[in-house]
Automatic annotation (TrEMBL):
Protein name according to UniProt: Alpha/beta hydrolase fold
One Pfam family cited in the UniProt record for this chain: Abhydrolase_6
Keyword annotations: Hydrolase
Entry keyword annotation includes Acetylation: no
Ranges where the AB hydrolase-1 domain occurs: 4-227
SUPFAM superfamilies xref list: alpha/beta-Hydrolases
One GO CC annotation: membrane
GO-annotated molecular function: hydrolase activity
């Protein structure tokens, strides 16, 4: 069985995969600046720096190449990981991914995102705003704790640097299966953005649209993620 690694998105940690891990065997990792890797966060850190650090983590684990499932910001990181370190990645599952091009976000939205760091009330509001389905209390509390724990530098680097980066020029040589799982009801990264900036750039990618979930699909609809990963492993 090809090993599977799970990569979280902005502001969260490997804990976002808790409900998926109840049914799937995988290595869930923390990106630099978040979760247990919070102290490794750096001012202005780029998607490339996150991808290269992730490559180091996977090489240390030593079981690759990996099937990589990545959520939101992690999707952008995973794309660059596959492009820069192709020996580590056999397949990509992008879940509500940030696009490889600059993510559409107005200045007010970027300012609001920056201001949420370290603010429990703002984090509560942020996660309510980007979800559609209710999230179990334990998991919602973990989201907020992850936001409080994240590196201030890494947190600001995403709206200021990483989300603005255009890595699309580095992805033209990607030759591996890509599946994109997204929600038609996502309030954070619109389905139009997914179609125009992700799916349109990878003509062979498989699109798996959902209805009724918000942005945090691993917590809102974990069975959709489980079903996808299990089905692809059987093929």
């Amino acid at each position: 069985m090809t090993p599977l690694v799970l990569v979280h998105g902005f502001g969260t940690s490997r804990h976002i995969w808790r409900r998926v891990l109840e049914d799937v065997e995988a290595l869930a990792v923390d990106l630099i600046g978040f979760g247990d890797a919070a102290d490794l966060g750096r001012a202005g850190q780029t998607v490339r720096e996150m991808a290269d650090a992730l490559a180091g983590t996977l090489r240390e684990a030593g079981d690759g190449p990996y099937r990589v499932a990545a959520h939101s910001m992690g999707g952008k990181v995973a794309l660059l990981l596959a492009a820069r370190h192709p020996e580590l990645v056999s397949e990509l599952f992008l879940i509500a991914p940030s696009p490889p091009t600059p993510e559409p976000m107005d200045p007010e939205g970027r300012a609001k995102l920056r201001a949420a760091h370290g603010d429990r009330a703002a984090l509560n509001a942020q996660y309510h705003d980007i979800t559609v389905q209710p999230i179990p209390e334990q998991d919602f509390a973990q989201l907020v704790e992850d936001g409080l724990q994240a590196s201030h530098d890494a947190w600001n680097a995403w709206p200021d640097v990483g989300s603005r980066e255009d890595i699309s020029g580095e992805l033209s040589g990607l030759k591996l299966p890509i599946t994109v799982l997204y929600s038609e009801d996502d309030p954070a990264i619109s389905p139009d953005t997914i179609r125009s900036e992700v799916l349109a750039r990878f003509s062979d990618a498989t699109a798996v649209p959902l209805h009724g979930s918000g942005h945090l699909i691993p917590l809102e609809d974990p069975q959709a993620v489980v079903a996808l990963l299990a089905a692809k492993e059987r093929i």
